[in-house]
Design a protein that fits this description.
Blueprint lengths: L11 E4 L4 E3 H5 L4 E5 L6 H19 L3 E6 L3 H11 L5 E3 L4 H6 L18 E5 L5 E6 L9 H13 L5
Parallel strand pairs: 3-4, 4-5
Antiparallel strand pairs: 1-2, 1-5, 3-6, 6-7
Helix pairs in contact: 2-5
Length: about 160
Amino acid sequence: MLRNGSPAPDFTLRDADGNERSLADIQDGKPLLLYFYRFSACPTARRDLAAYAEAYPRIHAFDAEMAAVNVEPPEEHRMVRDRLGLPYPLLSDDGFRVSEEYGVYRSDETEEGPQPHGEPAIFIVDVDGKVAYSQVQTGPKGSAAPDAMALVLYYMTRNGGRY
C-alpha cells in the first residue's frame, strides 16, 4: 500500500476515446484526484461518479485535476461518460496493473463485473508527484465524499499544491 509522501506510480492508460494519457499529462503540474472505481454497472460506482461530476467545477476551480480509473475498456468508459455527462477523463486499467501498483484491493466478487475488478480507492497526488492523501477500501461502500476531497484540494491550492 502506498503511504502518504511516497511517489505516485507513473502510468500511461487509454482514455474513453482510446487516447493514451499519462499521469503527467493529466496532472499538468497540478494536484490530481484519482478515483478508482469498481465497474460502470455498479450502482454505487455510478452514484459516486455522478457526485464527483457535480463537484468537479469546485475541484477545477481549486486549480486541480481529476481522473477516474477502472479495468473496463475505453468503449465502456465512453458509454458511461456520455450517459452520466462526466467532465473528467475515465481511464482503462486493462489487466489491473496500475490498480495493483496503487494498492487497490481486488474484489472477491467473481459473479459480477469484469474480472479482475477493484474496490474503490481515492488518491490525491501533489504537484511534486507524491501521494498526499489516500483512502483504499475493501468493499464498495463508504468512499470519501467529493466535498471532503474538494476541501483537501482547496488546502493544497493555498499551499502551493502540497499537503
